[in-house]
Amino acid sequence: MTYFPRDDGLRIPDTLWEAMRELLPHQPPPAHPLGCHRRRLDDRCVMDAVLFVLRNDCYWNALRLPDLCSSSSAHRRFIEWKRAGVFHQFRDAGLLQHDFLKPIDWRWLDAPRRCDAAHHLRGATLSAIPC
Fold first, then answer.
1. Among residues 20, 28, 51, 63, which one has the fewest Cβ atoms lying within 10 Å of its Cβ?
2. E strand residue ranges, 27-66
């Protein structure tokens, strides 16, 4: 019997995830001579957590749901993907028009860098950030 997780509104729909996954940078596992590094968390699990924070406009440390990754892992990967231009690629590919992503205030993509950083480090709304 196949297990299908219930749609709790936290998970990225499969069709959207397939399009997003193609735009994420490939990260080979770190090569360490002793093999002691932790494995990289699954991109989909982390993207679920990142989009939860963005959709709910909450602080990163408010991310305490058992099925999502830790707030520090989500924030670290968000910064990595932001620097790689992943969210701009999502916009260019038209993915931000998907119903799942519409509640997110994407104006931070075009905000000056210091406002962008302040928004995601403090979890404040874009309008509350003085620039």
1. 28
2. none
Q: Terminus-to-terminus CA distance in the chain, angstroms?
A: 54
At 90 the three-state DSSP class reads helix
Q: Residue 14 half-sphere exposure, CB side, CA atoms within 13 Å?
A: 4
Tokens 């990142």 found at: 50
* Whether residue 106 has pLDDT greater than 80: yes
Phi, psi of 3 (to 5 degrees): -95, 125
Token output for 29: 């596992």
Give the integer Cα–Cα distance in Å for 131 and 120: 14
At position 88, the amino acid (one-letter code) is H
Residue 86 · residue 24 · CB < 8 Å: yes
Percent above pLDDT 70 for the chain = 72
Determine contact, residues 53/60, Cβ cutoff 8 Å.
Answer: yes
- Residue ranges of the domains in the chain? 42-124
pLDDT in tens, 87-97: 999 999 999 99
